[in-house]
Amino acid sequence: MPVAVVVGTQWGDEGKAKVIDLLAGKHSHVVRYQGGHNAGHTVVVGDQRYALQLVPSGVLYDSVTPVIGNGVVVDLPTLFKEVDELQRRGVSCERLRVSSLAQLIFPWHQMHDALAESALGDAKIGTTLKGIGPAYADKALRVGIRAGDVRDPKRFAMLVRERGTSANTLITALGGAAFNVEDVVAQFSELGARLLPYIADTVNLLHDALEAGNNILLEGAQATFLDIDHGTYPFVTSSNPTAGGACAGTGIGPRDITRVVGIAKAYTTRVGSGPFPTELIGELGDAIVDIGHEFGTVTGRRRRPGWLDLVMLRHAVRLNSLSELALTKLDVLDTFDTVRVCTGYMVDGKPLSGYPDDIELLGKVTATYVDMPGWKQPLRACRSFAEMPEAARRVVELVEQHIGIPVSIVGVGPERDDCVLRA
Ligand code: GDP
Ligand code: IMO
Ligand code: MG
């Protein structure tokens, strides 16, 4: 099992970090491959809760080298805030490595993100306002500044000054306030010096680790339906969270990947705008939000709740070559009389054959459901499939039947050990 990928199969916050933490102990490296500090990854160990945005979720293991891959966009103030907080809590970040090829986020990217969102008015995407889209846009325009550029401090300062000056023109043209470029140069010169010891040629580092017989875990942020190509465009993020993005974002080729673990909540949530066929508005949705604590780790926004959607999951199996699924937060549905699961979409009274390539159409579909009886008892203490109540097992089996891959992990609570592992 040299390389495993963990990928979200819905619209994010599926519990990826908890599963990564669970699997990390058997891997030498845990590598983030895309996104940036728009991610909010929560790991709970005993009474300690760690909310990670940039540092890979494997950091809690001394045996793991956490790596920020080349596909990530890195906000240095956030990175060091996170590193300082982890070290304060006794988690060493000395092993952390940042790809020299990773793009850096600058304050003007955040300003641009906010100005673009407010210009969209009601049509806004509902981004995290972290500057993710503008940073990836600069990468595509080939005017981005990369982590490795800090190796030459004079040239780095020159690049920040140059890009900062042209960004200032853009920001003021968009109606924003001009910023002091020299302040940014000074701030980032300091941050750049601090970054220096963490920078590495992570592509060769990872391949050397593989050749030495190690296993590597690639940590996806965001999710399949936030993917810039395959998600509900334009209500998506600006990278490729799908498993293919793991190759581009780390420099590891597809033949080295032997395991792709999709993560799905036992219901669905979405933060920000965009179509959502199984969305639940009303009391049941409020109950899911309350019981599941469905508020964003990064922005604190209430997540939109809905039922589990197997049309989406089937499509996620295709897009990511999923080998297995982890079904998380099944315990959140413990008190429900009925658990609904969407197994199809209808448009104008006719069934759709699969997940549509048109978000206008997705916005119009009516979800069709199978109603499953609830189990009405806590799942949290369950540690084997046999211990789970039959009604809960039936939901898991329904998912397997519809998506054609095994559910290998069932989440029954937020803590590291709150899992049912199926052989
Ligand atoms: P990620 O972005 O996919 O890593 O997920 P988040 O960390 O943003 O959100 C998932 C939330 O659910 C976190 O607060 C986790 O601690 C919590 N969680 C994960 N798995 C389970 C589970 O099986 N049951 C319960 N009750 N909570 C879970
Ligand atoms: P994790 O890794 C949930 C959403 C935003 C917005 C859209 C674009 O914790 O699952 P962006 O700031 O990326 O340009 O915003 O994507 N979004 C997420 N939603 N979980 C995330 O990360 C997200 N990262 C971005 O809400 O709709
Ligand atoms: Mg999250």
TrEMBL record:
The keyword Phosphoprotein does not apply. GO terms for biological process: 'de novo' AMP biosynthetic process; IMP metabolic process. SUPFAM superfamilies: P-loop containing nucleoside triphosphate hydrolases. Its cofactor is Mg(2+). PROSITE patterns: ADENYLOSUCCIN_SYN_1 (PS01266), ADENYLOSUCCIN_SYN_2 (PS00513). Keywords: GTP-binding, Ligase, Magnesium, Metal-binding, Nucleotide-binding, Purine biosynthesis. One of its GO terms (molecular function) is metal ion binding. Gene3D superfamilies: Adenylosuccinate Synthetase, subunit A, domain 1, Adenylosuccinate Synthetase, subunit A, domain 2, Adenylosuccinate Synthetase, subunit A, domain 3. Signal peptide: none annotated. It holds the Pfam family Adenylsucc_synt. GO terms for cellular component: cytoplasm. NCBIfam families: PRK01117.1, purA. HAMAP family: Adenylosucc_synth. Homodimer. This is Unannotated protein. It comes from freshwater metagenome.
